[in-house]
Design a protein that fits this description.
Elements lengths: L9 E5 L4 H12 L3 E6 L2 H15 L4 E4 L5 H15 L4 E4 L17 H27 L5 E5 L12 H20 L6 E6 L6 H6 L15 H8 L8 E3 H6 L8
Length: about 250
């Protein structure tokens, strides 16, 4: 178990073409899971698959689609059922700030706002709806949802992003309570300040080399995905860094 703690597990990573999603998918594959990777960009998924194959000798399953496409989300659940019959791990790493980035609420473009809402909030609801039956078919379904500090402490100009991420976090915690009697466990993770494209969009003047790379959070994602451990509902990455395993999982 220590070498391949996720051997033969089926792990879906949504938003796997870059950043935390990419590093999570690669780490899950190295831990023994068969990774199903989704993102909008085919090229990014193919780069991930090359890295997975180089590290493990096995290919990932690549499914390019856009979270604004509700029908594609519904079809995802059916496709995974036909191929695998279950889902053991779901990592929800996809998010967007929209084309405008940080902007006053009153200045937000309605079409851009709608896209942020569909990706960050409605997409999460539709994924829950599509994936719950598959997670119930697992003996220890694990869900890792990446959130942000502005979801609980919104600040000026973060309107659409903060509101939709707060909504998604509330959905996840509500759902976690609803499925408490099942083997499924949900963890909502605040990654903090990492060197991601989303962070660069929000803080273009920040030196990215002052930040840790997203790969540093990968070991936490693997631990939260393990079926032999009981994960907490909420985790702050910097707290886990201060005391891995003992502080986060029991």
């Amino acid at each position: 178990m220590s070498d391949l703690p996720l051997k033969d597990r089926i792990a879906l990573v949504v938003g796997a073409s870059r950043g935390i999603g990419y590093e999570s998918a690669l780490a899950l594959a190295k831990a023994g899971a068969h990774v199903v990777a989704t993102a909008r960009t085919q090229g990014g998924l193919e780069e991930l698959d090359d890295a997975v194959f180089a590290a493990t000798g096995r290919h990932a399953t690549l499914i390019p689609f856009d979270l604004v496409d509700g029908g594609a989300i519904d079809r995802l659940g059916g496709a995974l059922y036909e191929r695998f019959g279950r889902l053991d791990v779901w990592v929800q790493a996809s998010a967007t700030m929209g084309a405008a980035g940080l902007t006053p609420v009153a200045h937000a473009d309605p079409r851009d706002f709608a896209k942020v809402e569909k990706v960050n909030f409605t997409g999460v609801y539709r994924l829950i709806r599509s994936l719950e039956p598959l997670l119930r078919a697992s003996d220890a379904g694990r869900v890792v949802h990446l959130t942000t500090s502005v979801a609980s402490s919104p600040r000026a100009f973060w309107g659409a992003y903060a509101a939709t991420k707060a909504g998604a976090e509330a959905l996840m915690k509500t759902w976690a309570d609803e499925i408490e009697s099942t083997p499924i466990r949900v963890s909502v993770v605040d990654p903090g300040r990492l060197r991601t494209q989303l962070r660069a969009q929000a803080f273009p003047g920040e030196d990215p080399m002052d930040l840790e790379p997203p790969s540093v959070i990968a070991p936490l994602i693997v631990e939260l995905a393990r079926g032999d451990l009981t994960p907490p509902l909420t985790v702050r990455f910097k707290d886990w860094q201060a005391g891995p395993s003992a502080a986060a999982l029991v």
